[in-house]
Design a protein that fits this description.
The complex is a heterotrimer of chains A (about 375), B (about 400) and C (about 230). With about 375 residues, chain A is of the alpha+beta class. In chain A, about 50% of the residues lie in helices and about 15% in strands. Chain A has two domains: about 170 residues, no CATH class; about 210 residues, no CATH class. In chain A, strands 4, 5, 6, 7, 8 and 9 form a six-stranded mixed sheet that branches. In chain C, the strands form two sheets. A six-stranded mixed sheet of chain C has the order 6-7-8-3-9-10. The chains are: A alpha+beta (about 375), B alpha+beta (about 400), C alpha/beta (about 230).
């Protein structure tokens, strides 16, 4: 620790240069943080998908509907402890660009299946008693400045009434909060009975079932049992764990992981060069001073350590600043809730960032540190003459 | 003026001669800028590629007719009678047999595994009427033949064939209870149709329990100007509740959301990186000026003006930045141009195959970015260089 | 205190050659030298005679090509780099012509540098630094940066840094070479005091006869060898 002062002194030597380097490292880690959040926003946090939840949909595609009568048959399969149906409603508020997810569900089954949607008892009760009642996520509520008690008209081009009209009216009876940061609070849920009565076609069908299994270890066996139950029927199903479904869906958007890794690779390569060069330059300018330190009895290893400590300090200071800024920016919620409702830097990513800071410090410092270590005392001292 | 120019060239030349001594710093700055340009071009080439597919898909003299209130084929529905009325509307082109060039079509989505990952992807399966080929006008068979009406046969777009497993001529694809024989592979001028699987609408209807309904009518107009005659006739017909769009507008609109999103993200990321690279460039140019303080002071003492010093530093910075920019742009072009992939088209909830596209305009834009970083990175150091106090700097060792 | 006539330094048959391109330059040629404990030795000679090279060998900054360098009974030419560094930290104080202070640190921090290599606590280090600065007469310049000090003051800081670990041997490379006469005299008096009152053995390279006159003995180096006859 007593050498820290020495290291800090060297960073103070050319303040502008240190500042510029810190800023460029900071920006790299700021991007690192934001891209981590972006990746999460686009692919979903698979790590938190409940291992005991499965999704059952039509085998041909999720667009095809399946009968709600399947719910009872799935529930009867041994090992299944809960089933709830969801349907893609595709409701539009005022303008198709105001996109958000809207789905009819059966309130009690649904909230039991998804404990991550936290709804107060009063709101639950209101939902049970209001036929056209809707529960709206907090983010969505804020986005359109809605409040509980408002009557909201949505149009649903997919779901028309028997007379061909596509206007639906809902009353907001409550809101839901997220039990975890990774939960999307920009969705709109309303009652299936209201929906089924109002739609003019495909009555009695739904988009998919969420299935809870008692024992996550038996998820695969139960998935197979569900699909076997409906094999060779007019509506064959495909059942898979929630995580697999999320991953598959993310893959449909594109190989986001590879794109983001590629961008980060370019970012860090760039920063590596820029800050590595700065440190090398700084060490080169201090050749005689390093000679003096060695003449005073500083060992080669100590000199190596001092230069590495300097580069690591730069990387960590810049990194903590940048990653901290990204974290601060997203900790209060998504900066663009309408486009990316779930947007935060996951803890795992922050840890990875911390590791990267040290790695960046070591890599950028390695070359100048080795040069400083190998520097002969007498040559270094002679240079000034 | 000539004197001024010769001063600039003298100083710039002297500067550039010392470049090899500072090659580490210079290289780092240039490569830093190359990195920015690579990311910029890489991300924007995705947006460009996607946009292009949708841009070339639409023709202004083709109309697409949906049920009123629908904005995509997905949520549209038309009866057989609707399609007949639409086909009889004025303004439609006709073939040699004097039949209107209107194709009533069905659009469903099936799941097929992606070749790259093996995971399920939503692939559009389109049922078309015989007129569809003349309506589109740009379908060319690469391999095999067209499907035969009335048979469970499909022909697949070249993009779909490349991206999804099982779509090879001679194989059969099982979708639900139905088996489809793949009989041909086609191109469609690079448009969306290349991502689709086509079959006879009359075969698709029973397979999907659609009765005698359709989702859209694609109609070829006599000319682009005939669009208004056509729509007016349809919208004033009380027995129809439809909306008609030019195919070109229809597809252009489909691309706006995704293209805007990707461009926004690409520019944000590259913008932040550019700031990082700018710091790198500033560092390089400040140390370049510091290393030459005495030399600059000497020149000034000899009577050189301060503006040639400023310009020469800017020129050096610009030269480095342009070198980096060209390097990055060329690298991005080699790495990304033509790279094929597919993504979700949210309007149809199905996959669109496309190729990354590094257009000349994008390259120019990227090089402009590099130049901007170069000028900004050189400006402040240049001002410092111009302000060097001559007498003090001459004494410096 | 006077010289107690026991040898501290023994150089026997020391050769030092450098390669410059294909040319081999023999800077020291079979040089032998004995220095007693408590001596104040001036080392004179023209440029390129090998004075600095000799000083580097004595300070353990460099190794001879041939021959033995024995200091305080230890063959320092045989030590590894690591042990040599430790040896320097304990036994030698170096004073440079251009002071070689770190510009980013105050006088106090500069003097403290060699103590960082010892297990002393911060408080103990500060005490030692205060003593050393008092010895060189700079108690009131503790928090000044080198650029805020005159040449003579900077050199005193350099000397304080050299003596702060209380080494037996002080090696000074033209300590007055960059100073005016008055400051130079003050530095020479300081060295003399350190020699007489604290018994430091001092070897000082100098061009200046005025400086060498302060030493207890003067040797001349020419073409890599000690010349017996001292020119006036």
């Amino acid at each position: 620790m007593k050498f820290l002062y020495l290291v800090a002194c060297n960073l103070r030597r050319k303040k502008l240069r240190t500042l510029l380097t810190l800023l460029s490292i900071g920006i790299a880690f700021f991007l690192f943080g934001l891209l981590g959040a972006l990746k999460l926003a686009l692919t979903g946090d698979v790590s938190i998908a409940n291992a005991d939840r499965l999704m059952t949909r039509h085998k041909v595609s999720i667009i095809q509907m399946i009968p709600i009568s399947y719910q009872a048959r799935i529930a009867a399969i041994p090992g299944v402890s809960g089933v709830t149906a969801q349907t893609w409603f595709g409701g539009i508020y005022q303008d198709p660009k105001n996109f958000f997810a809207s789905m009819p569900v059966e309130p009690d089954d649904f909230l039991r299946m998804y404990p991550e949607f936290v709804v107060s008892d009063a709101h639950r009760q209101a939902w049970r008693t209001t036929r056209n009642g809707a529960i709206v996520g907090r983010t969505l509520l804020e986005r359109f400045h809605w409040k509980v008690g408002d009557r909201i008209p949505l149009t649903a081009p997919i779901w028309r009434h028997a007379d061909g009209g596509d206007a639906w009216e809902f009353e907001i009876v409550g809101t839901y909060e997220a039990a975890r940061k990774s939960v999307d609070t920009s969705q709109f849920f309303f009652r299936y009975d209201y929906f089924d009565e109002g739609r003019g076609q495909n009555k009695g069908t739904i988009s998919w079932f969420a299935v809870r299994v008692g024992d996550a270890a038996r998820a695969d066996a139960i998935s197979a049992a569900v699909d076997r139950e409906f094999a060779n029927s007019a509506y064959e199903t495909k059942t898979e764990p929630e995580a697999a479904m999320m991953q598959g869906f993310a893959q449909q958007v594109g190989d986001i992981g590879a794109i983001i890794t590629g961008i980060l690779g370019a970012v860090f390569f760039t920063i590596l060069l820029v800050s590595g060069n700065t440190i090398t330059q700084g060490v080169r300018e201090r050749t005689e001073e390093i000679g003096v330190l060695k003449a005073l009895g500083f060992t080669n290893t100590l000199v190596l350590g001092l230069v590495l400590a300097e580069s690591c300090l730069l990387a960590v200071l810049g990194g903590v600043g940048g990653l901290g800024a990204a974290w601060l920016m997203t900790v209060g919620g998504s900066p663009v809730p309408s486009m990316l409702p779930v947007f935060y830097v996951p803890t795992q990513h922050l840890m990875l960032g911390a590791g990267l800071m040290v790695a960046l410090g070591l890599v950028t410092g390695a070359l100048p540190a080795l040069q400083a270590m190998r520097l002969g005392v007498s040559e270094a001292l002679r240079r000034q003459a | 003026m000539l004197n001024w120019l010769s001063q600039i060239s003298a100083i710039t030349f002297a500067n550039l001669k010392t470049l090899p001594e500072r090659r580490g710093a210079a290289l780092a700055a240039a490569v830093g800028i190359a990195g920015v340009v690579t990311v910029l071009v890489g991300v924007l080439s995705i947006a460009e590629g996607f946009q292009r597919v949708l841009a070339v898909s639409g023709s202004p003299d083709v109309a697409i007719v949906l049920r009123s209130g629908s904005d995509t084929e997905m949520n549209s529905g038309l009866t057989h009678d609707d399609t007949r009325l639409i086909a009889d509307a004025p303004g439609l082109a006709r073939n040699a047999a004097n039949l209107p060039l209107a194709s009533a079509e069905l659009f469903v989505v099936i799941n097929l595994p992606k070749r790259s990952t093996g995971t399920d992807a939503n692939v559009p399966l389109r049922g078309v009427s015989p007129a569809a080929f003349d309506v589109r006008g740009n379908l060319t068979l690469l391999e095999g033949r067209r499907f035969e009406p009335g048979k469970n046969e499909v022909m697949v777009g070249v993009g779909a064939a490349r991206q999804f497993s099982g779509l090879d001529v001679g194989r059969t694809v099982r979708v639900g209870q139905t088996e489809w024989a793949v009989v041909g592979v086609f191109t469609a001028g690079g448009g969306v149709a290349e991502s689709e699987v086509w079959t006879d609408a009359a075969v698709l209807q029973p397979a999907y329990h659609r009765g005698d309904t359709y989702q859209a009518v694609y109609a070829k107009l006599i000319s682009a100007d005939a669009f208004h005659t056509f729509t007016d006739a349809l919208t004033t017909n009380p027995s129809l509740s439809i909306k008609a769009m030019r195919q070109s507008d229809f597809y252009a609109e489909q691309s706006t959301l995704l293209v805007g999103f990707v461009k926004g993200i690409g520019i944000t990321i590259a913008g932040l990186m550019a700031v990082g690279a700018l710091f790198g460039a500033l560092n390089t140019m400040y140390s370049s000026v510091a290393a030459r303080t005495r030399e600059i002071a000497t020149l000034r003492a000899l009577g050189f003006g301060s503006s040639p010093v400023v310009v020469s530093v800017l020129l050096e910075s610009l030269a480095l930045a342009l070198a980096g920019g060209v390097l990055g742009a060329a690298g991005a072009w080699l790495a990304f141009d033509g790279h094929t992939t597919s993504t979700m088209n949210w309007q149809t909830f199905s996959q669109v195959a496309f190729a990354f596209r590094v257009s000349p305009a994008l390259l120019v834009e990227a090089i402009l970015w590099a130049a901007m970083i170069g000028v900004l990175g050189g400006l402040f150091p240049a001002i410092r260089a111009a302000r060097i106090p001559i007498a003090a700097a001459l004494r410096e060792t | 205190m006077t010289t107690d006539q026991s040898p501290l330094i023994h150089l026997t048959g020391v050769d030092k050659t450098y390669r410059r391109g294909s040319e081999e330059i023999r800077v020291l040629a079979g040089l032998s030298l004995t220095v007693q404990r408590g001596e104040f030795l001036a080392l004179m000679g023209p440029s390129g005679s090998g004075k600095s090279t000799l000083l580097n060998l004595l300070g353990g900054l460099d190794r001879p090509t041939k021959g033995a360098v024995e200091i305080g009974g230890e063959r320092i030419d045989a030590l590894t780099d690591r042990r040599l560094a430790g040896w320097r930290a304990r036994h030698v104080g170096l004073v440079f012509q251009f002071y070689n202070l770190l510009p980013v640190m105050t006088a106090e921090r500069n003097v403290e540098l060699p103590l960082l290599l010892t297990p002393l606590s911060r408080a103990e280090r500060r005490r030692h630094v205060a003593t050393a600065l008092a010895v060189v007469g700079l108690r009131d310049r503790t928090n000044h940066y080198p650029r805020q000090l005159s040449g003579g003051e900077q050199q005193r800081v350099g000397i304080a840094r050299a003596i702060v670990t209380d080494p037996t041997l002080l090696l000074c490379d033209e300590p007055t070479g960059d100073l005016d006469r008055k400051s130079g005299d003050e530095i020479l008096s300081l060295l003399q005091t350190l020699n007489r009152e604290q018994g430091k053995t001092i070897i000082m390279v100098t061009h200046d006869p005025h400086a060498s006159a302060r030493a207890s003995r003067t040797v001349h180096l020419d073409k890599g060898q000690l010349s017996a006859a001292a020119p006036a």
